[in-house]
């Protein structure tokens, strides 16, 4: 994959975390986690122009930061402050289909007040990870002229910060959420109706992530269904959605255009990166990939979705 | 759609029922239901050579039988006997995502002992609907030289008739079940592993129906994901899977070959018919369709699944 010199720059804002994850494969402690960790690693395969804003505590291993630098990611917006890194403790059901949060220790993330380095303010693509919508708006206000702003959110913010969330939605192009969040946000169970309602809040496109049921893209009256690859080995679903978002945004930065057709391809690249992520713990599934392996799995998605046009 | 003179004949065995359905749209009584009712109607749009084996009681409205005749379906294998028609009473949750069975009155279905009229015994395609696997085997033994045998089953038979079910599976080409049934049958949560295990029981292909998450086809080492169309109006999910099976088998009969490529197309035709079925109560969504409307929705599925092949 040639990383085009004309590629667009991608700014990623999100959490950087340490996770303790229990489940059918036992307890794993202090795994690298957080939305920005997955997004940046997935996107870095597509473009050399990824920058990250986040906060880490003094317990955060420097090697994870160094690793991002080696991938060409600009980490000047990752701030290390006194205190503990955001720590999430969760447990997956034996079938990995559901999980529960056992503990959330915000640590330094509690006072996260993202300040963009000057060099970040010209970013063309922005991914606002799942943080307080007031902070998402704050970050967005610091970017001069973004061409595409995508955002994630979660049930907590839909519950307690709906007004700020709606303000944020009025300013973003793409919202990426899961099906339950879409239903909650729109107060409508039917996904097609929910999508129509959410698109009236501002975004021009809505991506609904459905885990092993794939992802849906609603935009401009059209709908696209990206399938999920049935995988033999699924170890850790943590970060699947963020890896999807990273692959999607990374491909858009790489492709250099935002046409509907390119966005569809980007959805599949997102699905490719999500499929790699769940095959290993933490970000391990995103480590050591090559253009060949990414292309190979993209081709497997082509085969997965392929059927002939016929006329009756 | 020209119904080819060279099309293959399709034999459908299954239940013919009257349903009482409660849910967000109120209580609806004595709706036409049963797997064979949906399968035959969906398949009849693709081939003039559909025949049905089933049993009805003396309370069953003759107009539903006459309607099948008008569609060109051979109903000489539908036996009317003294007693009540199989009656299912169920209630859907407000979001239509789940349902519970409130009552099952087998009536004449309790003594169903399918006898094929002589003219049925040369059927080339056979769909063994969800009945006791011992009966499925009995029916199959009466067909002389079927080219493709597909079967459905359910949790009840996996629980209490596993041995007969495995005997039946050794003789069918295609098993069509939902994801929970696949997991239960294979005693394996991971669908790809479950599919590999089930294919060792005998079938050369496995179709896993996943409702609004679409359907998966596992065959010959390959996998195909048929998307589900996100619909604005979903009224009654009853019979969606059977309409899918009818569209699939009907298209195979119409196409006249059983190549992997044709089976993929047939999966989409099944999805098309399932999508029509859920938009109305009972079989109403399958009534009055035209080749044009079926083609139009097939084209919408093409658009739903379309993305470009790119090289990184």
Primary descriptors:
homodimer, nine-stranded mixed β-sheet, four-stranded mixed β-sheet
Tell me what the structure shows.
The structure is a homodimer of 312-residue chains. By secondary structure, chain A is α/β, with parallel strands linked by helices. Helix content of chain A is 35%, strand content 23%. The first copy, chain A, has ten helices and 13 strands. In chain A, the strands form two sheets. Chain A has a nine-stranded mixed beta sheet with strand order 5-4-1-8-9-10-11-12-13, sandwiched between helices. The first copy, chain A, has a four-stranded mixed beta sheet with strand order 3-2-6-7. In chain A, strand 12 and strand 13 form a beta hairpin. The longest helix of chain A has 18 residues. Chain A is globular and about 70 Å long. Chain A starts with 9 loop residues before the first strand and ends in a 7-residue tail after the last helix. The model of chain A has no long low-confidence stretch (mean pLDDT 95). Chains A and B meet through helix 7, strand 13, helix 9 and helix 10 of A and helix 7, strand 13, helix 9 and helix 10 of B.
Oligomer: homodimer
Strand residues, percent of chain A: 15-25%
Between the first and last Cα atoms of chain A, what is the distance in angstroms?
Answer: 41 Å
**Largest interface: which pair?**
A-B, 50 and 50 residues
Largest sheet of chain A: 9 strands, mixed
Number of helices of chain A: 10
Run of helices and strands of chain A: EEEHEHEEEEHEHHEHHEEEHHH
The low-confidence parts of chain A are none
Helical coverage of chain A, percent range: 25-40%
Structural class of chain A: alpha/beta
Cα radius of gyration of chain A in angstroms: 18 Å
The number of E-state strands of chain A comes to: 13
Q: Round the mean pLDDT of chain A to the nearest integer and report it.
A: 95
Shape of chain A: globular
